Amino acid sequence: MVIIADDVVPVALDLMGGDRGADVVLQGALKAVVDDGDRVIAVGVPALGERIARDHAPLVAAGRLAFVGADDVVTMDDQPAAAVRSKRRSSMRVACELVQQGRCSAVLSTGNSGAFSATASFVFGRLPGVARPAIAALVPSLGATGHALLLDAGAQVACTPLHLAQWGVLGSAYFAHSFGVARPAVGVLGNGEEDHKGTALTRAALALLRQTQLRVTGPCEGRDLLHGGVDVVVTDGFTGNVALKTAEGVVAFLGQLVKNTFTHGSVVDRLGGALSRPGWDRIRASLDPRETGAAPLLGLRRPAFVAHGQSDAYAVRCGLRAARRFVALDVEGALATALARNPVVRSTRLSPTAP
Amino acid sequence: MVIIADDVVPVALDLMGGDRGADVVLQGALKAVVDDGDRVIAVGVPALGERIARDHAPLVAAGRLAFVGADDVVTMDDQPAAAVRSKRRSSMRVACELVQQGRCSAVLSTGNSGAFSATASFVFGRLPGVARPAIAALVPSLGATGHALLLDAGAQVACTPLHLAQWGVLGSAYFAHSFGVARPAVGVLGNGEEDHKGTALTRAALALLRQTQLRVTGPCEGRDLLHGGVDVVVTDGFTGNVALKTAEGVVAFLGQLVKNTFTHGSVVDRLGGALSRPGWDRIRASLDPRETGAAPLLGLRRPAFVAHGQSDAYAVRCGLRAARRFVALDVEGALATALARNPVVRSTRLSPTAP
Fold first, then answer.
1. ipTM of this predicted structure
2. Distance from CA of A60 to the nearest CA of B (A)
3. How many domains does chain B fold into?
4. pLDDT of A317-326, one tens digit each?
């Protein structure tokens, strides 16, 4: 029994550019619409619109699913700035414009995350004092909330200390608002816990963060990410992306080791494997990156969500749910308040909005 | 039954500066000497020498264990260049000098890795054409050899494209020599598989590597590290350290999840946990970073090994074994040959040897 709130504002979903093709993304939208009572406006090449009208007429008639056509598609090979400049009718651009026009509450894309970040920045503009948005990825943690927030997970490769300090403020406010933690512990990702370690970037970012009202724990290491001692881990988008994908790789690697051990091992191994299966399944589910679905681009004036390029239908559905929650919680309001309270990190002379 | 080769040249072991104290490092030396038939010259503050002479007189008399005193200790808070400049009688410096004098075949330290790298560079000098040494860390992998090599794992934070390209040549030669792989696959760690991704550093390093005779696969991602598609992963010491420690953190995190699930779960969970214990113990052993023990500093004229600051006695023993194998395989000879074959990566105008 799904409760449908007819007044819910739909989420704009970019069907194009994901690694698994538009059909998989559309399947995710259908799950969200049918199973979760979501409303979605899907954006893609015109042929998809014809198919949606034909195959899903009842959902379209009920106003649960709509389609808007776009002429261009941003590929994984497109450079961010070039995508914004030359693909003005791309599906991700059109999807962002639906939010900007007030027809949608948030936008989600599984496409080229750098190009999407640049496009969303261009269409929405940034929150006052923010130079660049960051992808804020939730990772599992042994801490009290069960989560830690890593940002930037890949939106911005070339960073300044001010970028990192701004993301500390944004990440802290997001984490506090999402998990009811009054003062989240904020660390800067580096190569050691001593203050003299790290790069010029991480040391300067830490010095800036220590001038804010945040609870700053200092430099932290890769192994602290999941250990619960720190809630918000700030880093440049290159390092953050490497850390996140390394963590995903280790989980996949261990899953393979476990499978090999308990399906090809001795009789005891195989029996133990069979009996420990439910436990393993729970562990695997708790680590499934699809559950998080998508990560918000923090620092923009409207909610934009980046989903993994390899997202399957289930991940897209979870991503749409995450976007809806973000809107319902009014995270953007909390972010603007946090920025106003920490003027030391505000960019005063911003580069032009266009990338 | 331990076979003792009386003509084996001892390894110099820095007793000081590790996180667990000199006693733990000494215990590792004793294991190596007693169980593996190693010969070790331990270097530390004079009080340790008195204790060794008193408590381990038979080993000392047999020439298996010796002690050399040092007045200074490099701490984790010392900056690398300052340690070389101002602590000229530090235990790590004295240990390196034992190798330089021909009294030892290799040196191992669990102390400040940046300071040790700078000290060993200063005392040994670098191989012709190498600007900086790199910590070459073996990680487990699903590939044919069961290993991948990550370098630099933390010796050099500020890097140039030439540094990374040199490490590609050194890492490839080391991997080929150690595992009998003719042409290891070499990748540059980055934030995506497309050539336009990455930083100016990674793109320029890749362009240089493509001018060598190596088998270069292109940019690789954090998740490729353990997946077997790439044998040698090149990166700057900051990013490499973050990736390595993130991977360690995920393994520890999963171990904790497994423990919680199978010791506090349902009856089925606990029974499954008990029966799957042997399999899980094998998995844990295969991932135990102590087994690798220590990582060589590739690019120096003499073998120097960096062990984890938190190494326990078992890790120190494994590290001494790794150093002995490295010497026996004449890895340094293979490295010099590889550098001579790839002149495009040689530094012609080197900065002075002293850091």
1. 0.88
2. 37
3. 2
4. 999 999 999 9
